[in-house]
Amino acid sequence: MNETYESETDVTEVLKQHKERQAKLADQMLAMTQNLKQVSVAARNIITQDNKNLELIDDTVDKNTVKLGKETAKLEKFNQSGGKCWVWSLIFVVMIIFIVMVIFMRLFPKRK
Q1: 109 φ, ψ (degrees, to nearest 5)
Q2: 30-55 pLDDT, tens per residue?
Q3: d(CA 77, CA 83)
Q4: Residues 107, 110, 112: CA angle, nearest 5 degrees
């Protein structure tokens, strides 16, 4: 009888230890789950903020691209008109030189 009581006590102790281990493991798993949830929420918030920043950057890039296109068109017009201005300036200089040369030839005729 004494042996059965000891075996029941041993079995009871073993069951008690297993229940305590299960309780500790359950508490650890709960703590890890809560930690994982906190990390996941923090990661979600960071990703959401990054997406907002990317949208703002995308809008800024689009605006800058449009502005760059406008400025490129202005620069092309300026380059085209600048070329015409130089051509007219050179034609004017050549005409002045021609007129001065004709006057010079009239003032100092060739000697025979």
Answers
A1: -70, 165
A2: 999 999 999 999 999 999 999 999 99
A3: 10
A4: 140
Q: In one letter, which amino acid is 16?
A: K
What's the angle, vertex CA 63, arms to CA 62 and CA 67, rounded to 5?
Answer: 120
CB contact burial 6-36 (16+ within 10 A = b; e otherwise): eeeeeeeeeeeeeeeeeeeeeeeeeeeeeee
Which amino acid is residue 92, in one-letter code?
Answer: F
Global pTM? 0.52
Eight-class DSSP state of 108: S
Three-class secondary structure of residue 81 per DSSP: helix
Q: Across the chain, which distance is largest between two alpha carbons, in Å? A: 162
Task: Provide the token pair at 23.
Answer: 């309780």
Q: What is the pLDDT of residues 87-112, one digit of tens each?
A: 888 999 999 999 999 999 999 888 77
Residue tagged 């006057």 (tokens)? 103
Chain Cα centroid distance, residue 67: 18
